[in-house]
């Protein structure tokens, strides 16, 4: 796993929310919107799109992450947001912003992370070690993956 020492304080937030089913067009629109906004804010992370849920990992400066979370909370495309983890960090794990389709991950040879993501989406609490392992696995898995699995990268 590659890490990025930012030289300044950053934070990571991991959250889940329910979208109740999202079509391909809406997913692509969301992916493009997020990629543009996150690039402007220097936000990195991963959004995993499940059948009815999102799992998001957001990394950036505290103000950028907070602003992004407020925008996400106001977004009509989902509800019932739960923050699983919020922490400060000096080293970012994510290089950029990616959107992953969980169904396509299940079909890929890189599906080792799927049980962890599925467990996190339904979790009311998750162990910090398990959460760190899941984020690390997602970041590692997305390196070098083609556009079939990742939209908006």
Summarize the structure.
By secondary structure, this protein is of the alpha+beta class.
Give a verbal description of the structure.
39% of the residues lie in helices and 33% in strands. The two termini are 18 Å apart. It is built from five helices and six strands; from the N terminus they run βαββαββαααβ. It has helices at 24-41, 62-74, 102-107, 114-121, 128-142; strands at residues 4-18, 44-49, 53-60, 79-92, 97-101, 150-151. It is an alpha+beta fold and 153 residues long. A six-stranded mixed β-sheet has the order 4-1-3-2-5-6, with helices on both faces.
Instruction: Characterize the overall form.
Output: globular
Decide which structural class fits the backbone. alpha+beta
The spatial strand order of the largest sheet comes to: 4-1-3-2-5-6
What oligomeric arrangement do these chains adopt?
A: single chain
| Poorly predicted residue ranges | 146-153
> Termini distance?
18 Å
Keywords summarizing the entry:
153 residues, alpha+beta, six-stranded mixed β-sheet, 5 helices, globular, disordered C terminus
Helix-strand blueprint:
Blueprint (H helix, E strand, L loop, with lengths): L3 E15 L5 H18 L2 E6 L3 E8 L1 H13 L4 E14 L4 E5 H6 L6 H8 L6 H15 L7 E2 L2
Parallel strand pairs: 2-5
Antiparallel strand pairs: 1-3, 1-4, 2-3, 5-6
């Amino acid at each position: 796993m590659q890490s990025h020492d930012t030289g300044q304080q950053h934070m990571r937030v991991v959250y889940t929310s329910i979208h109740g089913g999202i079509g391909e067009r809406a997913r692509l629109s969301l992916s493009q919107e997020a990629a543009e906004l996150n690039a402007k804010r220097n936000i990195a992370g991963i959004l995993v799109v499940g059948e009815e849920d999102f799992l998001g990992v957001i990394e950036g400066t505290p103000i950028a992450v907070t602003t992004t979370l407020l925008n996400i909370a106001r977004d009509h495309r989902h509800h019932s947001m739960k923050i699983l983890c919020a922490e400060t960090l000096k080293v970012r794990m994510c290089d950029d912003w990616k959107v992953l389709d969980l169904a396509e991950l299940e079909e890929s040879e890189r599906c080792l992370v799927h049980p962890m993501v599925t467990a996190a989406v339904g979790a009311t609490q998750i162990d910090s070690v398990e959460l760190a392992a899941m984020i690390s696995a997602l970041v590692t898995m997305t390196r070098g993956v083609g556009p079939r699995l990742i939209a908006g990268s």
